[in-house]
Amino acid sequence: MQAAISTAAQVKGPQRRPGWTGWLLMAPMLLWLLAFVVVPTAILFVYSFCERGTPVEWKFTWENYARVFGGTELWPLLKCVLEAAGVTAVAVLVDWFRSPSRMREERAESAKRVGTAIFVTVLLWIVWTDLSNVFTGTYVRIFVRSLYYAGFTTLACAAVGYPVAYCIGKASDRWRNLLLMLVMIPFWTSFLIRTYAWITILNENGLMNAFLQSARITQEPISMLYTPGAVVLGLVYSYLPFMILPIYGSVEKLDNSLVEAAFDLGASPVRAWQTVILPLTQPGIIAGVLLVFIPAIGMFAITDLMGGKTVPMIGNVIQNQISGQARDWPFGAALGMTLLAMFAAAFWFTTRKQGDDAVMG
Amino acid sequence: MNRRQFILTASAAALATPAFAAAKKETLNIFCWSEYIPQSVIDQFAKANNVKVNVENYASNEEMMAKLQAGSSKYDLIQPSEYIIEEMVKDGKLETIDLANIPNFKNLDPKFTKMPHDPENKYSVTWMAGNVGICVNKAKVKDPIKTYADVFQDKFKKRIVVLDDNREMVSWALASLGIGINDITKENLEKAKGVLAKWLPLVKLYDSDSPKTALLNGDCDLGIIWNGEGAKILQEMKKSKKRKLDFEYVLPTEGAHMFIDSLAVPKGAKNKAVAEKFINYILEPKVSVAVYDEFPYTLANAEGCKLLKPDQLANNASFPVGDPKLDTFKMISPDMAGAIDKVVTDLKNK
């Protein structure tokens, strides 16, 4: 029913073709997109099929894509999927016979929900713990690792940023401005300088180790810098404000009377958060996730400085091909196009899913 | 991405404002290695000649070539090493230099003039020489370290810093196999690949900008680094009273790379005259010593060497003692350069 109404609404307004004034108003935007998005992407696409030269040799080759996916075997990944499916099957069976009083539909619904959650979690976990064996291809592995690092970063930013944003949004006016200021102050200095500050803190003769040793928590200095942990820390630190600010935006707009109503109707704080606050602040979370995840996956400066170039993400590899010492533009272009294709696929998948939901709703 | 780069950019931006107000100044655009030309030297040159100097940095010869390849013709002065000069001369990418405009050329040690990569110094003038050697923190590493293979032992896993330079890495593997560092063929590269596949997973940090930092910070215990960085650590060792430092710099017995970093003018440079003026300026004995004080590579300026203090001359990282096996790099074909980059890129990312 809802779907029918929304479709009807769509047909009416925007369906009309824009007049020439409309096109004129859109022209700067269209030109901008053409010059800075479409054309460069097309150039990259062409380069990715050329041979390495100075900078490119105009000879067609599949070699670059072969190198991107080189060494990939499907069997280890398939094995992981089967393992995860096995664990899921057991969990779903347990869930099915958990409480015999439930209706059949209820059981099916629960099995679907529990099954999906367990399957995804277990699969991600198995893949992560055995990444180098599951993904045998060097560059495919870097893609997957980048996804994981960007994913960790996004999760950590959300976990830390949500409460912070909520508190700022609920604080009194005077405090709110001060707290917002504190979130934004780091932007006043170059993020490179802030990254160097982390190097001073984390190195083995640095502040953190000095503190741990003087507090007698550790005897020997711990290697913190130039590890995957340092990379994720650097990413979380840099992108946290991009999570806090959009969530703060939704929290600020949150209608307090709805939250109060939830409590009046007897909801526990957890339940109120889950059924009222979370759905209402979801737009902020989604915006934050996009603002953190997408830049994080392509970041190369922080990973170079804090990972010591031994924990490369896909951004590092691409940067090294284009303006670094590897001087292989076609290969860099092929990596870039692969990344783009991944995003396009993810976008198509999510929008298609939303479309399904809309129809079902 | 390195620390000097943004400091320099920032200071360039700060300088730009008054420059607008003044009469139109000549500009010198320098594209040089990071941590190699002291800011004080640049400032003094700019002031004395009323020139605006812009500096951009790179961390490997190949990176510089990549930027030049990308079509950048805005630089007046670059700082390539010997094998790159050979290549650039062959490809006609360097302007000739008029030595008549550089009277201070006579101050250079004859050892570092008329070298095989530029026999008549038509295209380049030596800036500084140097080598790539092993620096060891003896407080942490008790065994004697003499060869590349001594560095890359399993027990030093994730305690090693090396230069982030593909050709250098391949040359270490070749030397340790007893192959000449310039014998770069398909077969030899395949052999080197086998060695590097075992070595590179042990590395904790790739850093060409400032590898000494990780050694001094205690993040790494041994490294294969530029001699100037090693010399700086040895200086630091003498200075430090509070913290006892114990480092040594050794040249691997299998042989090491001696590089001849030079100043050259890329084709199409707009301001060759000022570039030559700058070259002449840094060849002043006093200026060359100022450079050495900050970046203690092997000083190629014979007159400048006379002004060095005895303890500076005794720094065995700056000035190798005895008769170590040192070789310069020779130009290689683009195909081989590509093969090296592919091998090392694949291994580093493994």
Walkthrough of the structure:
The complex is a heterodimer of chains A (361) and B (350). Chain A has 361 residues and is mostly helical. Chain A has 16 helices and 2 strands. In chain A, helix 4 (75-96) runs antiparallel to helix 5 (104-129), helix 9 (191-202) runs parallel beside helix 14 (301-307) and helix 11 packs across helix 14 (301-307). A two-stranded antiparallel sheet of chain A has the order 1-2. Chain A folds into 2 domains: 74-136, no CATH class; 138-361, Orthogonal Bundle (MetI-like fold). By secondary structure, chain B is α/β, with parallel strands linked by helices. Chain B has 2 domains: 3-129 and 260-313, Periplasmic binding protein-like II (D-Maltodextrin-Binding Protein, domain 2, 3-Layer(aba) Sandwich), CATH 3.40.190.10; 130-257 and 322-348, D-Maltodextrin-Binding Protein, domain 2, CATH 3.40.190. In chain B, helix 6 packs across helix 14 (334-348). The longest helix of chain B is centred in the first third of the chain and has 19 residues, at 3-21. Chain B is globular, with a radius of gyration of 20 Å. The model of chain B is unreliable at 15-22 (pLDDT under 50). Chain A binds chain B through residues 52-55, 138-139, 142, 190, 192-193, 196, 203-206, 221, 223, 225-226, 301, 304-305, 308-310, 312, 317, 320-328, and chain B through 1, 3, 6, 59-63, 65-67, 69-70, 158, 161, 164-166, 203-207, 214, 216-219, 334, 337-338, 341-342, 345-346, 348-350.
Beta-strand segment tally of chain A: 2
Low-confidence stretches of chain B: 15-22
CATH level-four homologous superfamily name of the largest domain in chain B? Periplasmic binding protein-like II
Please give the alpha-carbon distance between the first and last residues of chain B: 23 Å
Q: What do we call the CATH homologous superfamily of the largest domain in chain A? A: MetI-like
Chain-averaged pLDDT of chain B: 91
- Largest interface, C-beta closer than 8 angstroms, per-chain residues: A-B, 36 and 38 residues
Indicate how many domains the architecture of chain B comprises: 2
Question: For this structure, what is the CATH class of the largest domain in chain B?
Answer: Alpha Beta
**Strand order across the biggest sheet of chain A?**
1-2
Q: What structural class do helix, strand and pairing data of chain A support? A: mainly alpha
Radius of gyration of chain B: 20 Å
